[in-house]
Amino acid sequence: MQIEIWSDVVCPFCYIGKRQLEAALEQLPDRDRVQVTWRSFQLGPDTKTDPSRNAIQNLAEKKGWTLDFTRQAVIDVSNRAQAVGLTFDYERTKVANTFDAHRLVHYAASAGKGDEIAEVLFRAYFVEGRNVGDHDTLSQLVTGVGLPEDEVREVLRSGRFADEVRHDVRTAAQFGIDSVPCFVLDRKYAVSGAQGSPVLLQALQQALTETGGGEAVTP
Asked: Exposed, middle or buried by CB within 10 Å (0-12, 13-18, 19+), for 42?
């Protein structure tokens, strides 16, 4: 079974959802039958990378919220993250366009390291306060999992895998996916949002046995 996860590396619920999926897979007897593929989705495709600003400021401006209200909102999200073993540091986050990061996820997937790079990028943004829109930073992150630096930099310079990112975005629109994370199981069922590992486990079990469950998706 293939699990396709539409997500963005600056989406907190996508990182939380990743942990919840991992917990569900640990309980799945047929784990070896499951392949996980990360798909691209941009929450802010027009976002300009600006390391002088953080996600709190960006969210406040985008939503028209006060900074105090926004800080309380991200505290609530951070508490949800803590429940799955993650420690977010919103004050250190750096506003970034994620298109190039998505290109590198596709590149890493072609080398069998897509899940590793997804993890590295999430951690870099939410935990380490790294600029995931900066090419030097991206190169360091990707080469850190054993991929060749010269090839990584060539991918960043050349624009390779841009078509794959755009294809994922178009496919999401065709499926009616307008928020992330969205877990699509064998292009038949979908679970939207960070629903918790019990919900994901039930959906995985039902999909594996083809007994239904989840939301039908029309390719």
From this structure: buried
